[in-house]
Amino acid sequence: MKKSSKEKAVLVALKLPQNDTISFESSLLELQELCHTAGAEVLGTITQVRTKPERSTYIGRGKIEELIHYCEEKEVDTVIFNNELSPIQIRNLETLLERNIVDRTMLILDIFSQRARSREGKLQVELASLEYQLPRLTGKGTKLSRLAGGIGTRGAGEQKLELDKRYLRKRIQDLKNNLKKVEKSREQQRKQRKRSRIKVVSLVGYTNAGKSTLFNTLCVKSHPSGKNQVEADDKLFKTLDTTTRKISLAGQELLITDTVGFIQNLPHHLVAAFKSTLEEAVEADILLHVVDITDESYLDKIEVVKEVLVELGANMENVITVFNKADLINGENQDNQNTIYISALKGYGINELIDRIVTE
């Protein structure tokens, strides 16, 4: 990002036949939140209705002209698209717009690059970034020196995009080898936990659903320190590195894990890079699927999380759906065997949740 001011961005999205109005608007709102998390200032949004994307430029020629004028008038630094672009589309758009071109995948990778703290997390993000960038070198490389420092050119990509593909392939292999060593250590820890027969609880869910707040609430009540253990705020992907703590609930010792949040169209490179970490999380005895029930799209987001859990091989019988922020909705909340209503922030329903965890 530029040090002097926020990076000025315009958002671009196609409404295709398979997109209903509610999901399309929800996706755009999420893109704005992603931009905010990345540190960009969104100046506006340009949309187009088409039956399919334009193969060479994603949007039509007339919309390209409109975008060119908009970028010049508003002094836009970066154009951010709400879908993944092909290498040829990126190259053509850069040539036509003379701006930094970022797609949804690049934006998410950029955020992950900013948020990674642990060695394993940094290795995983760099691997995902390089595997995504490798086939797109022809699209970004010629403009990198002019656009360096913006969204999509940060972290792993900033210096390595200008290097040849042979070097990148070697770096990717080195990262995979390093991650294998980390995974071996993780596997040994997993075996030790199984031998100890200690119950393991993992918090999963859509990003910004309140997992970290719930994690902190349980730790304040049950961790020896009596303090918050992770940062929690209203930005997407605040938690990136998996955090595990030993707590005691009703005299029962157990391990509780806070995990990275899922998101619609989560880049498959990221899923692959974080697979070992996520697989360990979903092997827990209990999976607390935290859902923000005040979100208008919460049902769609439940399905997104379920799809990822199934892809990771989770036992769905171990899932308890935890409807968070239940204090903010009207009507009576009815807990059942697979669901429970809480407010992680206000403490509503937490004792009932603890009873459920202990007795499961």
Automatic annotation (TrEMBL):
Naturally occurring in which organism (per UniProt): Candidatus Syntrophocurvum alkaliphilum
Protein's job: GTPase that associates with the 50S ribosomal subunit and may have a role during protein synthesis or ribosome biogenesis.
Positions bound to Mg(2+): 212, 239
Keyword Cytoplasm: yes
Entry protein name: GTPase HflX
Localization: Cytoplasm
GO CC aspect terms: cytoplasm
Co-factor(s): Mg(2+)
Coiled coil segments of this chain: 158-199
Family the UniProt entry places it in: Belongs to the TRAFAC class OBG-HflX-like GTPase superfamily. HflX GTPase family.
Residue ranges annotated for the Hflx-type G domain, each copy included: 199-360
Self-association state and partner proteins as the record states: Monomer. Associates with the 50S ribosomal subunit.
Record's signal peptide: none
A Pfam family it matches: GTP-bdg_N
Gene Ontology MF: a single term: GTP binding
